[in-house]
Amino acid sequence: MRMELIQPFINAADAVLAETLHSPAKMGDVSMEQEAYRRKGVAAIVTINGDIEGRIIFDLDPETAVKVATHLAGSPVAQSEETVGETVCELANLVIGNAITTLNDQGFRFKIQPPALHSAEQGLSGSEDTEALVMCFDTPSGSIFMNIAMRYHRRRRAERAQLPV
Amino acid sequence: MEQFAALYRSKDRQPIRYLVVDDSVFARKNLTKMVESFGGKVAGEAGDGCTAITEYDRVLPDIVLMDITMPQMEGIEAADRIIRQHPEARVVMVSSVGYQENIVAALQKGARHFVQKPVKPEVLYEVIKYVLGEDGVAAAAATAGEK
Fold first, then answer.
1. ipTM of this predicted complex?
2. Using CA atoms, how far apart are residues B125 and B41, in angstroms rounded to an integer?
3. What is the CATH number of domain B7-142?
4. Which of A41, A49, A62, B61 has the most CB atoms within 10 Å of its CB?
């Protein structure tokens, strides 16, 4: 996966998490994964279609998800409440939407589907084309993981390769 | 949350009525909190573009806050349909997906403004004041005008 695709996600996560959680987020571990994805807690998935195809999963362990939801709701939220999932979906929407904005303004053309709660324990493994990059952001509420598996659309990738550098 | 001078309709000094359209319940709650802090009232809510159109006809709001990425019908198409039926509609797009092409498309369909998420209350307040123009008045100005 190329850095030009990844950097906007890092920048967006930095900016959005700092803005919404009122405290700077620190980027922690970064790793590549070809293994099947294993959910850590409350996860939201966003699908991307266009010049770039793939999916991004935003994942928080249950305790962190409750802390983030409580912070954003401004009042205590229980782990069982729908608000927790809603919050994770909206956070994913904010980070991914902002990253997509940057990429589109750079000339990539694609759209995102609304975020959905990802409830499967496992699945969505990477492949040779869609090896997943996993990034961890440390926040005062806990660690927030972003798992990105994207690739250039085959036909559009060929068209892009023909463009002068 | 920051304190804002309440905004009213100039014609009858009633609170501004909003239609909040977003597929995320969380986002709708957040926007509701903000517009209430501006002295406004949420007259209706919708979670997709189709519902937004019927809700607009039902509540005839002063301002529509419209998300873009939604299931069934996206916000730009819903804004287009509402504005075609109600050219006076004041639709403000509120989305995390704010690339130029999207903004231009929304404005070409008649949306009055665009606010990128995460929404800063002070930005939304200024945009609403701007979009209302002479049809809206802030509390301090309203009091001054009455003296």
1. 0.84
2. 14
3. 3.40.50.2300
4. B61
Per-residue pLDDT tens, chain B, 147 aa: give them: 668 999 999 999 999 999 999 999 999 999 999 999 999 999 999 999 999 999 999 999 999 999 999 988 999 999 999 999 999 999 999 999 989 988 999 999 999 999 999 999 999 999 999 999 999 999 875 544 444
Q: Is the dihedral of CA B130, B104, A107, A164 positive or negative?
A: negative
For B30, nearest residue in chain A (alpha carbons): A73
Contact status of B96 with chain A (Cβ, < 8 Å): yes
In eight-state DSSP terms, residue B5 is P
List alpha helices for B41-111, DSSP H.
49-59, 75-85, 100-108
- In chain B, count of helices (H) and strands (E)? 6, 7
Please list the residues that pair with B136 across neighbouring strands.
Answer: B9
CB contact under 8 A, B98 and A96: no
Could you give the C-alpha distances from A8 to A13, A95, A155, in angstroms and in order? Answer: 8, 9, 23
CB < 8 Å to B23, chain A: 114
- The per-residue pLDDT for range A10-69, each reduced to its tens digit, is 999 999 999 999 988 999 988 888 777 788 899 999 999 888 888 999 999 999 999 999
Cβ distance B40 to B136 under 8 Å?
no
CB contact under 8 Å between B118 and A19, yes or no, is: yes
CATH topology of domain A3-159: Chemotaxis protein chec (3.40.1550)
Instruction: Find the CB nearest B97 among A72, A87, A100.
Output: A100
Q: Mutating which of A16, A82, A90, A103 best tests the B interface, going by the most B Cβ atoms within 10 A? A: A90
Query: What is the token pair recorded at B50?
Result: 């189709």
In the block, tokens 């023909």 appear at A162
